[in-house]
Amino acid sequence: MKSSRLLSILLLLETRGRMTASELAGELEVSVRTVYRDVDALHAAGVPLYGDAGHRGGYRLLAGHRSRLTGLYAREAEALVLAGLPAAADELGLGGHFADAQLKLRAALPAPLREHVDRLRARFHIDAPGWYAEDTEAPFLPRVAEALREGRVIAVRYRRWKEPTDVDRRLAPYGLVLKAGRWYLVAAPGPRTYRVDQIIDLTVTDEEAEVPAGFDLAAHWRASQRDFHARLHQGEAVVRISPRAAAGLTGAAARALAETGVPEPDGWTRATLPVESTDHAHATFLALGAEVEVLAPAELRDRVAATVRVLAERYA
């Protein structure tokens, strides 16, 4: 977003001094031409920024100029990490700090840029959970986040789906992930992933929790997601599917359709789609009604056909 880049240019020049357009473009991952446009926008906003030509040239701020981005407290700085997700900041117990940090950021901007940011804020809203997702309460989330920030081991009572359902665990928090409106804790030993809303009791201990050097939370999450989907879809089904049903496919099914789909004369597509289990596939394909025909495996086709016969008799 342009307003974010403008603020980044200001902070880079304040902290590093003179920088060339190429250096700024590299830091911001944009083109040099974009940097030129952003510098013009800062000039128009009254920022005392000027450039020197030549081999040792570059952009710099007028000597002594500082933005008013000062006075941030630690919790406010932490809240800025969640600047795009105010609801998430609130769930983590940082809602008030988030609001204070936003006010300080806004006050630090030149008037024209501040007005531009206000207009953008009024035009964008992030609502992460899906339409049919139920609200999940995670009463221990703020304490989990606090233990994570302070690097403390937590003792939890955790409710899982298999027996015994309630188990005691001693966990070293590595990170929190917000996925589709639900919070997950990545923690040692393992590390493994835990749903925060399934924690039914929690104690923050005095034991120090160390995150291994080089641990990358985002990379770990991506790898765990790939492994989850690989284990989830271990079967396949050959189907004929109508254009209407094909347009509604998402995720692995949509990718498989694109990779294996073969158009047929009647406009339908024959494809091999990944499935979890016979039970799950049976329910999934029945939900598509007459927009899909299961060709294989025979067990799945026979089961769908048997259900269709029962329904036909019931509604005769």
Summarize this entry quickly:
With 316 residues, the protein is an alpha+beta fold. The protein contains 13 helices and eleven strands. The strands form three sheets. Strands 6-5-4-3-7 form a five-stranded antiparallel sheet, covered by helices on one side. A four-stranded antiparallel sheet has the order 9-10-8-11. Strands 1-2 form a two-stranded antiparallel ribbon.
Shape: extended
The biggest sheet, with number of strands, parallel, antiparallel or mixed sense and barrel status, is:
5 strands, antiparallel
The secondary-structure element order is: HHHEEHHHHHEEEEEHEHHEEHEH
Helix count, DSSP H or I runs of 4 or more residues: 13
> Which structural class is indicated by helix and strand composition?
alpha+beta
**Unreliable parts:** none
* First and last CA, distance: 59 Å
**Which radius of gyration do the C-alpha atoms yield?**
27 Å
Order of strands, main sheet, comes to: 6-5-4-3-7
Q: Approximately what portion of the residues adopt beta-strand conformation?
A: 15-25%
Mean pLDDT over all positions: 82
User: What is the total tally of β strands?
Assistant: 11
- Binned, the helix content reads 40-55%
Domain HTH deoR-type: 2-57
Pfam families: HTH_11 (PF08279), WCX (PF25583), WYL (PF13280)
Organism: Streptomyces omiyaensis
Protein name: Helix-turn-helix transcriptional regulator
